[in-house]
Design goal:
Largest interface: A-B, 20 and 16 residues
Distance between the termini of chain B: 30 Å
Structural class of chain A: alpha/beta
Strand content of chain A: 15-25%
Oligomer: heterodimer
Strand order of the largest sheet of chain A: 6-7-8-3-9-10
CATH topology of one domain in chain A: Rossmann fold
Number of helices of chain B: 10
Order of helices and strands of chain A: EEEHEEEHHHEHEHEEHH
CATH architecture of one domain in chain A: 3-Layer(aba) Sandwich
Strand content of chain B: under 5%
Shape of chain B: globular
CATH architecture of chain B: Orthogonal Bundle
Helix content of chain B: over 70%
CATH class of one domain in chain A: Alpha Beta
Radius of gyration of chain A: 19 Å
Number of strands of chain A: 10
Largest sheet of chain A: 6 strands, mixed
Chain lengths: ~260, ~260
């Protein structure tokens, strides 16, 4: 049984120009321990899909199940990393992470919560920035705090909404590496769904890539397995035959649909 | 650079001097209006012995201002004690907002002079009536700014609360309150300004000792210098209050 399962979900929003049908009849299944990337153009409804899968918002139609149970709100074992970091600016890095630990483990003592928050911040290389506020951190450091916060609650399911989208290429690469390490170092297999518009990023991290057609009424294309060994290195991916095949499949799927729309 | 600094210091003095000149000129033409020098001569005892207490109204300016400030503080705190929770309620609940917004819009423009008699009817005594008038007049900026602040909380922060599954209480203390605090403080500052406006009117009507009460009594005793003294005191104290709140607000925003 898949860990995350969405069946025929639709979502629309009211807008001044009438109802905007962002998603229509979308289904997806993610196995336990899998890393799935959903790749699509900007504004195609990827974030909407992620919000539905993670329980941040509810679908108009269809249902989302986590471990066989219908999703109502964000689950206990679920962590989400947003593109715009979503840190609370009035707290230090440590307090931001501790707030998450506190919500997940309210019975733990304050010192224990702090220690756990500190451990994860050190894992992402922020040991010397514990007491700085988000305003005093660079974009990359802020996203590191957000990632530490996501992992600090020891999640079973991780949703990443363009986690590296706002970062420069170098920072992006080093954070991708750290994410891989964190995923493999976690105590149990972490099931991850990532939204991205960067195909190389998806190739680097995922077991499976699902192209998403452009909205309105966006749907998902056929998934592609990425059968490459791990750990992967970005420079390999440029030449690896299997990687080139996957890339061309996804690009074709996305552009085919574009042409179909244009005609 | 130096010229600029000198200007920063001198220009306000020039402005004050010109205003004084206008006052002095006016006093030449209006026989009942005392000149600046005459005003100083008549009222220096109130400033040189600021804490003196010679009679019910015949007291040093600092003491009178102190009475007024105590009253303002009580009314102001009462006002924000009611206004802040009300602002949060109207900010989070669109039902409550639609229900009470018309009421607020009607109550807001009512003058303290109109509230005071109602306060007298309700409480039968001038002191609580004055507090009532101050509270009910000064709370609106706090209410409206808090509403604005709550509504301006970015979706990001609500997402944090939802994703971390924070309890209602934690969401309030760790997310909503800090996010709204700068707006609340803007409201407090405006509220305090209004409270200070109201105090004078309410003291004049109720005849309680304070700067406003003093002003009204001296008018009735035809001592016009003292009216000017009271007016200037009201202005200076109000200015200082606003400055203090401004500093507190700036400090808060810098956090």
């Amino acid at each position: 049984m898949p860990l995350i399962e969405a069946i025929g979900i639709s979502k629309s929003f009211p807008s001044p120009a009438g109802t905007r049908h962002v998603l229509e009849d979308v289904s997806i299944a993610v196995e336990r321990g899998e890393f799935v990337s959903i790749v699509g153009f900007m504004g195609c409804g990827k974030s909407t899909l992620l919000n539905l899968l993670s329980g941040v918002t509810a679908p108009d139609k269809g249902c989302v199940r986590l471990d066989g149970k219908p999703v109502e709100g964000v689950g206990k074992q679920t962590s989400i990393v947003f593109q715009n970091y979503s840190l609370l600016p009035w707290f230090t890095a440590l307090e931001n992470v501790r707030l998450a630990v506190n919500a997940a483990q309210p019975s733990a003592s304050r010192a224990q919560q702090k220690a756990q928050a500190e451990r994860y911040l050190k894992l992402v290389g922020l040991g010397n920035a514990l007491h700085r506020r988000p305003g005093q951190l660079s974009g990359g450091m802020r996203q590191r705090v957000a990632i530490a916060r996501a992992f600090a609650t020891d999640p079973e399911v991780l949703f990443l909404d363009e986690p590296f989208g706002a970062l420069d290429a170098l920072t992006r690469a080093s954070l991708q590496q750290e994410l891989m390490q964190l995923c493999s170092a976690a105590g149990r297999p972490v099931t991850t769904v990532m939204i991205t518009n960067n195909l190389d990023e998806a190739l680097l991290l995922s077991d499976r890539i699902i192209p998403m057609t452009r909205g309105p009424r966006a749907t998902l294309g056929a998934p592609v397995s990425v059968q490459l060994g791990t750990p992967r290195r970005p420079d390999q991916l440029a030449h690896d035959d299997a990687a080139i095949k996957v890339r061309s499949h996804v690009v074709q799927c996305l552009t085919d649909h574009l042409q179909a729309v244009a005609v | 650079m130096i010229l600029r600094k000198v200007g920063n210091f001198l220009l306000p003095l020039v402005g004050i001097g010109l205003a004084g000149l206008a006052w002095w000129t006016a006093s030449l033409y209006v026989t009942d209006l005392p000149s600046p020098a005459r005003t100083w001569e008549d009222s220096k005892i109130y400033l040189l012995e600021p804490w003196a207490k010679r009679g019910e109204m015949d007291q040093g300016m600092a003491r009178l201002a102190y009475y007024s400030l105590i009253r303002v503080a009580q009314g102001f705190f009462l006002g924000i004690l009611i206004g802040t929770p009300l602002g949060f309620l109207l900010g989070v609940s669109s039902i409550a907002h639609r229900m009470f917004d018309p009421v607020i819009q009607v109550l807001r423009p009512i003058s303290p002079l109109a509230w005071l008699p109602l306060g007298m009817v309700l409480f039968q005594k001038s002191e609580p009536a004055a507090l009532f008038a101050i509270a009910v007049c000064s709370m609106w900026p706090t209410v409206l700014n808090t509403v604005t602040g709550v509504r301006a909380i970015p979706q990001d922060y609500w997402n944090v609360a939802r994703v971390l599954r924070l309890s209602k209480f934690t969401t309030f203390t760790k997310v909503m309150l800090p996010a709204t605090l700068p707006y609340m403080f803007t409201g407090f500052r405006l509220s305090l300004g209004i409270a200070w406006l109201v105090i004078v009117a309410s003291e004049m009507l109720t005849g309680t000792p304070g700067v406003g009460g003093f002003l009204w009594q001296e008018y009735n005793s035809l001592i016009y210098s003292h009216i000017l003294l009271a007016i200037l005191t009201i202005g200076v104290v109000g200015f200082l209050l606003d400055r203090m709140m401004g500093l507190a607000e700036a400090r808060l925003r810098a956090l």
